[in-house]
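RECORD TYPE: protein structure
NAME: Natural resistance-associated macrophage protein
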Amino acid sequence: MSSIFRFGPATLVTAAFIGPGTVVTASLAGANFGYALLWALLFSVLATLILQEMAARLGIVTGRGLGENLRLQLQHPLLRALLYLLVIAAIVLGNSAYQGGNLTGASLGAEAIWGDTAWRLALAEQSKLNPWALLFGAVAAAILWQGRYQLIERWLIGLVLLMSLAFISSMLLTQPTWSAILRGLLVPQLPEGATLTVIALIGTTVVPYSLFLHAASAARKWQTTDKTQALAESAADLRTAIPLGGLITLAIVSTAASAFFGKGLTLSNAGELALSLEPLFGASARYLMALGLLAAGLSSALTAPLAAAFALQGLLALNPQQFRLTWLLVMLIGITVSSMGLKPLSVIWFAQVANGILLPVITLCLLVAVNAKALGRYRNNRRQNLLGFSVLAITLLLSGRTLYLALS
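PREDICTED:
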């Protein structure tokens, strides 16, 4: 008998999409447009629930991750090569670049809490590296090195709960306008200049690498459990973790809206948001926001390398040593990028373009996989297909818009 709510593999998805990129995007959405774009966040959460349910079901029923299922389904050499190239470019290389942002975000949170400590300044002066990035990268690597799924899951549950406490508390301290929040959620509107922010809000929540991460982790979590029971537990997991992630993002948007919107102030990064809250709402707001940013950076620093390794393992049938080498390489690249202050804009731009192409492609592959006759009574029903293809259509439109803006 499963409970109504529980934490499980879906927590990895929440930990993955609530990273520094989401914190920055949500902060800018609130600072520049107030509560007007919350409807885009609501759509993102619903789309994530739809796709991640399919990914988890595929993993539970087949006992394989999404990458493995794609490898078995795609028999045409050219199609397989094109998909593999796209996945490696968007997820493996892209997550390597994003990992630098994850560690930088965690460092910004730490600096907002502790400031320029003597040991950090001394080490930075001697080595020209970012000590916080080295520390958090080492912590994340140590957790992943254990290779124990339950340990990783527990760490991520703890970090997600910490983010929830920090960001929701900071929102409550800023006393948001609740009627405006409700209107923003239920009444779609597109202020002038908000198109890119809408795309970014959706793009930071509905991401292809989370599908690989969730399918593989669900297959591991429930490999010896009765499928009916596993699916019930997975459903409870989804309705706990994904809406909680949406609530965290809503809290960030609302905090930034309360602090910046309509006040003639500008915001350039999330670390600046944390520092700017103190004169407006007191020291508690600053420290809570900074703590949330630190937790967001560290949680994504765990999931980004793991997702890249799961994707590559499924597609290329990597052995355990190669799996570990993959996430370790992503981690080392991220530490280097963050520690040396590099800004790999061209790599991130390329990864965003590749992700723009990859999301509808992977969504279509997922829909084909969960409609396979081999799944028997667990294959998609008519309602699930209607919802899935609706999300596919919208992701196609958004991807086309993203590519147009990126290439223009």
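COMMENT: DSSP finds 17 helices and no strands in the chain.
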